[in-house]
Amino acid sequence: SVADALEQALAAIRPAVRQGKPYVVGTPPEAPIKLNQNESPWDLPEPLKRELLEAFFALPFNRYPAEHPERLRRALAEYIDWPPEGIIVGNGSNELAFTVGLAVIDDGTPVVMPRPMFSLYEMIVRLHGGRIHAVAPGPDLQFDVAGLLQAIAQHRPALVILTSPNNPTGLAMDPRDIEAVVAAAPGLVLIDEAYVEFADGVGARPLLDRYPRVLLLRTFSKAFGLAGLRLGYLVGHPAVVQELYKARIPFMVDRLAETVALTLLRHPELVQARIAEIKAGVQWLYRELAALPDVEPRPSQANFVIFRTPLEPDVLLARLAKKGILIRNMSGYPELRGYVRVNAGRAEENRAFVVALKKALAGDE
Ligand code: PMP
Prior knowledge:
By secondary structure, the chain is α/β, with parallel strands linked by helices. It is 41% helix and 14% strand.
């Protein structure tokens, strides 16, 4: 019967996959003010978009792109001052994280990571059969560096995963602490820097020069405002990266995305101005939230702030959604029960959010 055949078809799927859950943000209602996915609030300026349309016109859509976007890789090599052979460009940094998982994790491979951690990494380790050794946070959700060092000494992980600034907390790890972890790790250390452009300092980039075990993961989705195009890049020692190439999906980056990224890299002033405005927005949101009675925001080096209020997150989200504002419930992370997250938008969006929040807290349904 069809039912039996379906049973058999499903039985062919690996248990690690069947026991999991898909990564879904959900499709939130269309809302005029969208502050729930840490995106950039600005699309590219219209003249630039028109220029890109012209450029798209000249591209042969019927031809495969190169296995790897050479021009973009060279532009990135210049941008971060690293040999092109040590860079993989991918279809979003999330996909490159899967590449690392595929290359490194076998059944039972130990992986150390702090908690709370961007949920995708747990999913990647689990899907590949790895064993997660998670290190709980210290007070105020801080990275427990001593705990990480101890877990590394105890479990000798093939892979340590750090995200700095961290999503979901917004906290950045002190560069000396990152180095201590890197120095102690026996295998590879993947450092996700999706939000590094919003943080003070230069992040973990200097460690690349001294530690061949470091892999930096960056994205065009946040500071560069290209979440809709799917572009990320991974940087590491060329010999390590050459191995990761063997696990990479071919033709990962399409011609349109490459063209847009190249154009944007030629306009650093635009990106820098937007980063400055987002950073100011985050500071403003933090101060406004901290000034409200019973509202507890956490300091952030990313483009978002997490905070707690006396309201249940779902109640707060519903009240804000009625006013056309979307933020995110973070209660899915056990350490973040009761927390919600708002990313910095345009100044007027941030102001509208704070006005709506005050009304929601005052009981305005
Ligand atoms: N890493 C982290 C920690 C993130 O929070 C995000 C955004 N959700 C990303 C990476 C972005 O991934 P991508 O480059 O695939 O858009």
